[in-house]
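Continuing from the previous page...

OK, I double-checked the sequence for Type II toxin-antitoxin system HicA family toxin against my notes and this is the correct one:
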Amino acid sequence: MKGCLPIKDKRIVPLLEQLEEQGWRIHSTKKGWLCYPPDKTKTAVAIHKTPSDSHWFESCLRLLRRSGFRA
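Thanks. Re-ran it with the corrected sequence; updated structure tokens here:
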């Protein structure tokens, strides 16, 4: 994954790769990634480099699915 920041959670890279395969645009930022869905009417989803919530992955998947991600 180009432009990857050091990652603490091993689930992030496969998730970002799946998003790219489905046509999502991924913009790397200082604190993580902004994921833009192929459907431009949907909002971007932020994935933080160091999430503080223990349920962050499930919450992130929920937001991604609302924007059109197919897991």
